[in-house]
Each structure stands twice: as C-alpha cells, then as structure tokens.
Amino acid sequence: MNVLVIGGAGYIGSHMVKRLLEAGHSPIILDNLSNGHEELLPGGKLIKGNINDAALLDVVFLSHKIDAVMHFASFIEVGESVTDPLKYYQNNVSATITLLHCMIRHDVRQFIFSSSAAVYGKPLYTPIDENHQCNPLNPYGRTKLCVEKILNDCDRAYGLRYMSLRYFNAAGADPSGVIGELHNPESHLIPLILYAALGKRKDIKIFGSDYETPDGTCLRDYIHINDLASAHLLALQRLMDGGKSSIYNLGNSKGYSVREVINLAESVSGKKINVTESARRAGDPAILIADSRKVRNELGWTPVYEDLSQIIETAWNWHKNRP
Q: Which residue in 43, 158, 279, 280 has a CA-CA distance of 20 to 30 Å to 101?
C-alpha cells in the first residue's frame, strides 16, 4: 500500500516508516522538518511541506495514489501548550482538518491518528481503560480529544474510518541503533536521565517525592517505540480489511516509578546519575497506567519489550553512540 506518513521524520514517525518498509508497504513522508530529522529516515519518499498546505496535499494525493494516512505531526509539549494554546490548536486541530478535507476529496477513507493518554486527565481509577472519562488537564490533551471527536463525526458523515491510538509513554530506540529519540528541546524522562548519565546535563530532577506511591514518586507506563509501531501496523491492516473505527490504549500495563527508572538506567549504563528533588509540577497525576487488554484482544497485539530495562538498553545504545 501507499501510506502517507505525516510527520514521518520525527521520533515515532521514523520508526513507523521503518516498519512499513519491512512489511512491504510504500511510505510517502510529508514533514516540514521543524521537529523531524531527515537523517532519521530509513527510506521512503520525503516531501517537505506542511499539512495545512491544501494545494500541496492535493498534489501528493494525486501523484502517489494514497491508500491510507498516518498522522504523527502534532506539537506535544504540554507546558508550551499552556503558554501558547493557539499554536497547538492551529497545528494539532486546524491543520488536521485541512488534511481530512483532502482525504475526503480524494476518497481516501483510512486514517491512523496518534493520540495520547493526556485525553484522560486525572485518572479516577487505574489501570485506565478506554471507557474512562476524558477530561484533559491542558490544551495539548484537549487538542487530541478534539481531533478524536472530529474523527468520530467524519466517520458518521463521510465514512472515514479511523483508529485513534492513545499512547502512554513511548520510549526506547530501534535495536539497530540507526534511529532513535531526538527532540529539541527534550522533555521525556528516559532520554533526560540518559543525558545525565552521559554528562550532557548535571542531574535529573524528580518533581515530587511525596506522592501516595511505594517510593513517593510518580508511576508511569512505558511502551517501546517498535511495539508502538507494531500496533499501528495491526490497526492499519484492520482498517484495510474493512474494520470499524476504534480507539485503543497503547501501554505495557506496568507502572514504574521515577526512582525505579533512574535505578534501571544506572544499571544499564553503568553510570552514577545525580538526582535533585524538586516540588511537584502542577497537573502531574500520581499514577498513569494503561489497561491495554482491548488492543491485545481485538488486534492481537503483543508487545515484545515488556521489561523496562530492555527499553532503556535500546535507548542507551542509541544515545551513547550518537555524535
């Protein structure tokens, strides 16, 4: 199939491109490279441009006979979404509407959406299943939920079928070491810890050590980037086989505390990591763990990297060997 991968030069997108190529598909990547990196692409055809450029999208759909679309081009920084919400609504929502208009014009009705556990807000129970109420705590989460509602309406009105995949914490790197996580600025816990291990930063900060958890620090669910990509591939196949639209949580259904992640990173890297304790950050729930039984049962998804030390090891191999 010809799969249009929006934001395919980014962290998740580049790993998805690699999996599509391995599965025999033809990925066409549309990325403006504002957050993506051309050198991360393992193949496929790169088109530099924006998804809010309707004329460019028309050219892409006409010239490549697109069968399905995968969307990884959202802005993701929670803090920035609070200080500059219109930037997030413009890119994450408005530009996505432009893309959906184009899909309808060209009769492409299969869409994979990169969503987030941020749609849930403060959990009422854990692990969190897909029936949990959605009450996002920040504009970033609200943009994701807004697109999900738009997709539901598009399914009813135009027959545009979609899979919305709600990530918990994507982590790790492809075992080949060729591609991995490369954000600027970096805000994710595991790469920040590994930067401290490499001496690229002086310490790692723990935001809050008085939560009602076994060691007082937040518990989070981590999923390896290749397991994430595998779930997308299964979701795509289900849509192409005529499956109905659906929403799935993607996580390992295991919680690791911030201290546990630091200790595992020290064990994997063999480096001592300096830790500084700080006050809690506003809006950080104590526990965020996915109930992923639905994607396992309905799509047959089985993660390969269920142990966090394996995930951290792939990330360490990537970061320590980067120039």
A: 43
CATH architecture of 2-171+223-250: 3-Layer(aba) Sandwich (3.40)
What's the rounded Cα separation, in Å, for the pair 12 and 143?
A: 19
The tens digit of pLDDT for each residue in 292-302 reads: 999 999 999 99
The rounded distance, in Å, linking the Cα atoms of 309 and 312 is 5
Mean pLDDT of 134-146: 96
The residues near 96 (Cβ < 8 Å, ≥ 6 apart) are: 51, 71, 147, 150
pTM: 0.95
Give the catalytic positions in this structure. Answer: 140
Level-2 CATH architecture, domain 189-220+253-321: Alpha-Beta Complex (3.90)
Please give the distance of CA 164 from its chain centroid, rounded to a whole number.
11
Tens of pLDDT, residue by residue over 80-116, are 999 999 999 999 999 999 999 999 999 999 999 999 9
Q: Which two tokens stand for residue 307?
A: 């142990």
pLDDT band at 323, cuts 50/70/90? low
